[in-house]
Give the backbone structure.
Amino acid sequence: MASDDETGKEPAPAAAPGRRLDRRDLLLGLTTVPALGLFGYAWWRQREYEQVQKASAGGAKKAAANLKEINVALLGAGAQGQVLLDSMLRIPGLRFRAVCDIWTEYNQKRAVNTLRKFKFETNGYEDYREMLDKEKELDAVVIATPDFWHARHTVDCLKAGKHVYCEKEMSNTLEGARSMVLAARETGKLLQIGHQRRSHPRYLHCYEKLLGEAKILGRVVTVNGQWNRAVAPDIGYPERYAIPDARLKQYGFKSMPQFRNWRWYKGLGGGPIVDLGSHQIDIYNWFLDASPSYVMASGGNDYHDPATHEWYDTVMAVYEYETKAGRVRAYYQTQTTNGSQGYFENFMGDQGTLVLSESEANYPGFLYRDPNAPPWDEWVQKGWVSAPKVQEAKPEGEEVALDVRESVSPDLHRVPVVLRDPYHQPHLENFFDTVRGEAKLHCPAEVGYETAVTVLKVNEAIEARQRVAFRPEEFRV
Amino acid sequence: MNEEARLSRWAMTSIVLLRVLIGWHFLYEGVAKLQKPSWSAAGYLLQSRGAFSPLFRWMAADPNVLAVVNPLNMWGLTLIGLGLVLGCFTRTASAAGILIILLFYLCNPPFVGYFYSIPMEGNYLVVNKNLVELGALAVVLTTGSGRVCGLDRIIHRLLRKRARPA
């Protein structure tokens, strides 16, 4: 082999003047060309993986052509109704016939005007019964009224032969929620409850692919989640558009401030644990494929004025689940005094961790592979998770000592699924697709009911000041 | 020329390997940018700190300058990469590589006391990976490995052949 004593000999003689181009020159001249081929091959493979990831992130859109038009009414055109309307205006094949809201001077007018701008001949109603009487062509009603109206609105719409999309929480009482399930069954009409994460492509990807097929987290033992929200002033209203007292009372409200801030009042809403927690505790049930056996909770009105905030502004709850894989403890907190770290759900198994939320800005799907878990190369190649970013165990900046007993930081992957549409759009699309007979509801009445039982029990546990048991039959109607 | 040729076989093989690896890196950086239709150096240039930052920010601010800088960067990196991998116009490619790396280095020099908004990978107190690559290219530049193992060998021979009758 080559050694120092060869120094001085020409290892591969460079061109000497006068010598002709021979085979040796050609061979040596082209020696490194295969490196280019190797580069091309590596590049092609890399592109393939990237394309697979892109494809799994995108989700194909259906063609808008030849859609059977669905006649829709919006019942409840407040803040949430507006959010749903904005999403629906992006969905092809809908014809908006009516808007019903008791705040005719403001919310109703705004929604009707918006729809007229989009060239829909839309009628405004104050009383939903009048709307159901007059609008015979309606196929579906989208309900976004305060929780205590959900049961009556939904049941009456179903009985009038309309399919219903009803915002969560299904109802502020279990009796109300039960009547909704029964009405859906009786009439054979569709009832979708607005737990919109159930149709979010990232959540579906995690549920079907990562937890279902890949079982990427191993055995999930603990779950935690939160919705932290900063202090917000009470919602106001323009004085000159105030609803007359008589009308407010007719529809169950004491005053204009109470009408605007109904979520905080007992008998009207369920407080932050229901408004916010319900979305995420629903994911606990879904992803764990189980209903809880017990819950204990602590909560109270620790900050806000109890005269205007009857429900608990701070709630911390711990559920116990008996899943097929074993026992799981799941913590949830919601507080309305500090918005740090926002909202997310965090599933922790013995092989990995999944932190996700519906937001694209915060916690848009982080996966941590435990260093002891089998490699996830297969899932990276399939495009189910992104390539890892290896975590540095060394903290940045100042000199700090790390204890040898600390676990090695796991590698960070991402869930490569992005939702570019408004959060509620996929869930509404799922509803309308089902109306056309082309899909299956992602959150039918029975599922919404299970979640209502799971969530409403927290308020009960706070009052009882003890661990409260769920009976399995409680979750069924 | 003779000095270069006197390197041992192993030394020359190592230098060829070094050349191909650096070329691979350049080629990747260039092709990756060419693949992204919206790629622009503006973001990187605007991050510039230190004594030369006005120059780099000027490049980023003027769309006319940027219209030259962007393709120059993308195609420059790609062609330098090809040149180094294939050993084709090796000296020119090495010199151009050194120049472009020097620009990267000066755009964000890792001098003591400069704190950056974006932490750069591979900084070791004044020396960073850019500077190490620059040094390696200096070796490639001065050892003419393309004429031993690379297309330069063929080009050189053909040119000489043509020159001989004169």
